[in-house]
Amino acid sequence: MREAIARAEVGDEQRREDPTVDALERRVAELVGQEEAVFLPTATMANQVALRVLSEPGDELLADLHSHLFINELGGPAVHSGLVMRPLCSTAGRFSAEQVREAVWDPADTHRPRTRLVSIENTNNSAGGRVWPLDEIAAVCEACREHDLRLHLDGARLLNASVASGVAPAEIGACFDTVTLCLSKGLGCPLGALVAGSAQRMRKARRLKHLFGGAMRQAGIVAAAGLYALDHHVDRLAEDHARARRLAEGWRAAGLPVDLEQVETNFVQLDVGALGLTKAKAIALLAEAGIGLSGTVHPGTLRAVTHLDVSDDDIDLALEIAPRALGVRAAA
Length: 332
Ligand SMILES: Cc1ncc(COP(=O)(O)O)c(C=O)c1O
Known about the structure:
Order of helices and strands: HHEHEHHEHEHEHHEEHHHEHEEH
Number of helices: 14
Structural class: alpha/beta
Radius of gyration: 21 Å
Helix content: 40-55%
Shape: globular
Number of strands: 10
Strand order of the largest sheet: 1-7-6-5-4-2-3
Bound molecules: pyridoxal-5'-phosphate
Distance between the termini: 46 Å
């Protein structure tokens, strides 16, 4: 990837003169089943641009209670697009088409905001990297069409969802009006994300990119990393998923509270609350032993993530060290 970065042909991206950025945008648009894509520095910005493209101030956005959009973007939908943020309860990060239908306000009611937008997160971060089945996406999409709602995919980890489910990213992405794809997570790039949609919507997205301060110069330097990642780091996501599964099964066998059903991609959620530990205490104990886990929005729950810098040996080490660090011994 460093070599691809060094070799990148570049130009002024703001003037659309950077051939590497252009190539990445074309590649991602096709990959996610959309007409056009726009390169941005982060997935947060991609989400925010998408929402602004699809809505008017005062419109209402429906999304999972614990979605990244609602809990990790500092109220961005309200700040940048004037959206009313209405959380939906979810199971494994998923809500139903029926919930969407029930949530839509009567458009004739002049006392209610216009319900306009729905966002799905696939894989869902706070549910532990869970995958939306395609039929459930299609059902939500149908509910949106019935009520003239726009549908956004926070597909920061869309390729993890695709690899885990065996469904092509274009098939998933084509269900949506806009799609976010992140390059800096499992794909291993230093930074970068894209928002994709119709050519008309992406014209608006390019203006918003500038408005939000995301129009760059010789951005081909990082776009080259994205192209490299799409060539070399997609199929290997299956290795991350396999390592997460091995970690989860091993920890569980050692007596750590891991719900194996939750492990569908590259996250393992660990219920340290069940061990009588706070998240902060468990993170500190693990860090002391050399293992980096992070907290989640859920009480007593930590998250381990596998990615291209986590090897089989690292998993062996985590299997050996973590139970001891957390004071758990496997049943004989
Ligand atoms: C589902 C989801 N969307 C968006 C983002 C934002 O990504 P970034 O940090 O690149 O802005 C994240 C980050 O973890 C995420 O998990």
